[in-house]
Amino acid sequence: MEKKKYCEFGPTLDKCKKWLQEKHPEMFDKLYSEPEMSEQLAKTSLEDQKQGNDVEDKKKAKEAAKIERELQKKMASKVIITRIARNKRKCVTNVYGLENFDIDLKKAAKSFATKFACGSSVVKNNQGNDEIVVQGDVSEDLFEFILETWPDVPEDNIELTEEKKPKKG
Question: Tens of pLDDT along 5-20?
């Protein structure tokens, strides 16, 4: 019996089987006979399946919960497009919240600059979060461009706002 434990995992299992058959035929029949082998195989495979299924079910449940949390986070987050008036007829458009939808802000800023032929950059706002600043009043066009370019951003999650500087006086 001890011989099987060591030989089973070694490189010389065939040699061990031959030796066991020659020296101890009754032990060989007990360990390697067809009914005994099939019984051992069935017993171990059932135990492995039970343990394996429990572990796999837990992993699948954790993965599903993680995906569900990410989806809830995406659905709760908003993309805010703000038009900010500067002096007289000048204005800029800020886009905040695109990173929640796994969009690379630098690539998005580059595509905005290319699409609208203007300056666009990623900057940190007062709260320390990244946002995209686009020169010019392109808020309506940005709304449409975001929907066309990134279909995973729901239309209901995009807000258009306008911020005016208070007049001095």
Answer: 545 555 666 777 777 7
